[in-house]
Amino acid sequence: NHYLDNQELTELLKYFAKSYPQKCDLEILAKTDEDRDIHLLTIYKKDGRHHSDQAAYWVDAGTHSQEITGTQAAIHLAYLLLANPDNSPEISYVLDNYTVYILPRITPDGVEAVLKNNEYIRSSNKQYPDSKYHRGFEREKLCSKHQNKKPLFLRKKDPQGRWKLSKKDNRIFIPRGIAENDQDEDYYMLLSEGTFKNYDGFHQEAPNNYELDFNRNYPSEWKNDATMPGAGKFPLSQIETRTVASSITERKNICLIQSFHTFSGVTLRPFVNQPDENMPTQDLFIYKELGKINKEVTGYDCVSIDKDFKYNAGYEATGTFLEWAYSNAGIISFTTELWNIKDMVGLAKDYIPDFFNGYSEEEFFKIAAFLDKTGITKRVFSDWVEIDHPQLGKVEAGGWDMLKFITNPPEEFLEQEVDKNAKSIIAQIPALPLVKIKNILVKKISNDLHRVEIILENSGAMPTYGSDMAKNINMINLPKAVLTLTKNLALIEGKKEFEFNHIEGRTQRHNFSNYFFGHMDFNNHQVKLSWIVKGNGEITFDFDLAKAGYLSKEITI
């Protein structure tokens, strides 16, 4: 029921690491420009293992500074996995067999500024694209009478104003009609609460001084700032995005990625700028099947960005994390837009237009009624108070604070929002590849000759290469076997070190899912390796299983 600032987040992460030392490691991946830590919590059951020894799920949050719910979802996932408060066998299974990487806040600098002064910051509070403020507008609190101490809005009556008050609820502004000119109607200009800087008495400009967008700074389809505002000077120009990209590519066992954002109430998948027809068939199947799990647990649709989540029909987002993670890193990846207040009110969602076109008068009326009924209004709405603006004269300050009811859920609804999304991840993890030694057979050929056979079996749904995209772009190596023999053993047949074919999972023949055509379930989820050795002693088998991690086994002959 509480949004964590950076100090609280750090303290909680340290508490996890101290309280559950056999289940997690905490590391600092990088320092931000303002010397804040970017943390990574790695959760796995140690028992002498390394976190890279098993397939992994990566979770991150906080790409965008105002979307603070994502951090709460990531931390709630950590809590469920580490504390296992309900003694869940599903959580025990995850810990026994997989690794979960959690990066809970990518932009601590930006979040700190948002929580302190309600500033609109896309990703970083670094002034961008210029290092100095433009002539323009700066948010600041001007009205001392409000209980809410953060900047809200200013309204000023103006015959040319674009807004008017709703007759159903005077807290609601609705757009003025394109040909509307009612002499008896009051029209308003709306501004954020603050003042113009370098003001010449006439030009009123409001450039976004914090335009940098980490979700346009990744290498996939990157375009420069002139074409894609907020993209940065070059791909991965920011320490935050470089840290995310390098940390993911260094961890070869990552099979699935979930990146948390807000606030459309939907889960997004690739492609960003291509149709589904261009995606490898098996990858599309995995996306849709995992999307079904997510829908069942969260109620969120899982949609392609290219088809269902564009700002307008011709818009193409470039430099996105989701496209980089799949098309360049070869990892099945999702972005979940947590929370949409329409879900709570029972209104139909329209994803992107909900943000750009706002809410109809009737929709906002129902939202306001919901906020009144739940007692939330008193925290997120401030009555309009007349003030003397140093540049605009008589204006009124007040209005809605959207951070904790539009962009993020009110605290009363925070736990249920993050709980279902954390549990969706736990439900998806068993789809990851899971390779074990099914059988070891030592056959005596003669007094000092033996044939050794090992069968490796993948009981997970996904193959050891994770995705077809990873194979197509050469982002994954073949599995590898390495033998170490004691000196009184000699290898007669077979190699001490060699690569072998990937081990498929249950997704490989998904297209034969009709019972009447499905009797072709061959054992391509298994592989048999064999050697002939002479003598007696110990053999250590080390298997690098690509996305499935590592296995080691020692036998005595």
What does this structure look like?
There is one protein chain. With 557 residues, the protein is of the alpha+beta class. Helices cover 25% and strands 27% of the residues. The strands form 6 sheets. The protein has an 8-stranded mixed beta sheet, sandwiched between helices. Strands 9-6-16-15 form a 4-stranded antiparallel beta sheet. It has a 4-stranded antiparallel beta sheet with strand order 17-18-22-20, with no helix packed on it. The longest helix is centred in the middle third of the chain and has 18 residues, at 281-298. The radius of gyration is 28 Å and the shape is elongated. The chain starts with 5 loop residues before the first helix and ends with a strand. The mean pLDDT is 93.
The end-to-end distance, rounded to whole angstroms, is 60 Å
Unreliable segments (pLDDT under 50, ≥5 consecutive)?
A: none
- Give the helix proportion (percent range): 25-40%
Major sheet details: 8 strands, mixed
| C-alpha-based Rg, rounded | 28 Å
Task: Please state how the strands of the largest beta sheet are arranged side by side.
Answer: 1-2-4-3-11-14-12-13
Q: Overall 3D geometry?
A: elongated
Annotation field: number of helices: 14
Mean pLDDT: 93
What percentage of amino acids are in beta strands? 25-35%
What's the β-strand tally?
24
